[in-house]
Amino acid sequence: MQPEPAVHVVDDDADVLRSVSFLLRAHRIPARMHSSASAFLRAEAVGIAGCVLSDVRMPEMDGIELLRRLRAAGSSLPFIVMTGHADVPLAVEAMKAGAMDFIQKPCAGEALLELAGRGLERWRELSAERARQADASAGIAVLSKRELAVLEEVARGKASKVVAHELGISVRTVEVHRANILAKLGVDNTASAIAKLVASRG
What we know:
- With 202 residues, this protein is an alpha/beta fold.
- The chain is built from 9 helices and 5 strands; from the N terminus they run βαβαβαβαβααααα.
- The protein folds into 2 domains: 5-131, Response regulator (Rossmann fold, 3-Layer(aba) Sandwich), CATH 3.40.50; 142-200, Orthogonal Bundle (Arc Repressor Mutant, subunit A).
- The protein has helices at residues 14-26, 37-46, 63-72, 88-96, 109-141, 145-155, 160-167, 171-185, 190-200, and strands spanning 5-10, 31-34, 49-55, 79-83, 101-104.
- A 5-stranded parallel beta sheet has the order 2-1-3-4-5, sandwiched between helices.
- The chain is elongated.
- The model has no long low-confidence stretch (mean pLDDT 91).
């Protein structure tokens, strides 16, 4: 079962955690607090969903290193960094490392709520995209090697006659394969089949 999406706040300052937690929960936005980057990574290893709101300057592991570790591990969690006024260059560095956005401390309530909402919405978009890709991959996996070859050639815009010539089979056989492809993928037309092929490959 997938965990509940939430805004995961990472900061070594207990006062910041309390104030941000109060703000988010007062607006009925699920929130989880983490007192260090290491604590967050332990939770992430078990499984989390949503977005990350992390301070940049923290002992042991800073926010940029946390972001880099997440991206290196293949995580696409939307990541927002919090910075002090003097840390704007670090925020720019975080953006280059894959952060979605940054906000300066002290965080204005409306701006923080807007960013948190955008982070969760981005997570929902990414989740839907992953679900579509998984569904498409599962469908493509049931095709035979020859059916997949036919679909790939059709996706390149080639007519059945050309596909038949290049694969060394009859036009009738190509048409049979095309019909089987549509049936196996559960789609009504070739364009939808091609869309699934593209989606399966990210």
